[in-house]
Amino acid sequence: MTSPVLYIVVPCYNEQEVLHETAKRLTAKLQDLISRQKIASDSRMLFVNDGSRDATWEIIEELCQDNGLVCGIKLSRNRGHQNALLAGLMTAKELCDCAISMDADLQDDIEAVDKFLEQYAAGCDVVYGVRSKRDTDTFFKRNSARGFYKFMKALGVDIVEDHADYRLLSRRALEGLSEFDEVNLFLRGIVPLIGFKSGTVTYERHERFAGESKYPLKKMLAFAFDGITSFSVKPIRLITTLGFVIFFVSILVLLYSLIVWLLGKTVTGWTTLAASIWLIGGIQLLCLGVIGEYIGKIYGEVKHRPRFIIETFLKQ
Ligand code: UDP
Ligand code: MG
Question: Which pTM does this prediction carry?
Fold first, then answer.
């Protein structure tokens, strides 16, 4: 087998503090792999500038001038991590045999690239990077992430636990991915749907090299919620179940009231009445909210707006 052309796709949003170091380490890695003929000499790293507000793009331009292994894409504005990643992957699809996506902040261990390539050589079209431990995370993030994966699995969504967006996709897996044209992109959920033979690589996730996380709690929760509603309609089914339960309870209450009345007693219960009205009202609003969430999602999908627009592509 001839050495494959590898593209390493790195989405970047306000990453001026880390980009030089990331490029330096990726260059060393690519050069090493090229010299050992593990990958072809036209392999590249591809930085996707996701509408950064700092000097990220200027640094990418500079890197492209000085370093023959660097390519850069500038999106027309900030479109979020998943879309930026997709823009990079869809561009790489035309140029590579396989692409590895990783974060710009050096949290994903670059040394694991070798292991990804071994799996690829062994015939895997999809290789998932899985974190060996989560001790660099806060207690809250660790547990909320575990809860999230458990919940997704309980909903029947095929998702790889402790796998973020560090993964290898072969060219045909990328072509498969391009067929999924949903606007609400949650790559972690979509990639398993592509199929093909897959493998996993465990790696240790480091601390962010510099700069700060672009996923504050609010964004993280929205991301998780988006993942759930994009892949499962079970929350809606739960509403139906809830409806049945409440119906059953109401019959019991009715029977009770009837018996009390037949026994000639007055049915008391202003408190119960008031409490039930508020309770049922709350439950109904909550259910409406869940349904609304899905309608909102349909609204977004039918408009079918482009997921990203590429302003500049610096290729070499
Ligand atoms: N990112 C992006 N667009 C955004 C937010 C983040 O391209 O709107 C990139 C960011 O530059 C990084 C990756 O997505 O390369 C992951 O973000 P981050 O490291 O902040 O997330 P965390 O590791 O804290 O979950
Ligand atoms: Mg990070």
Answer: 0.84
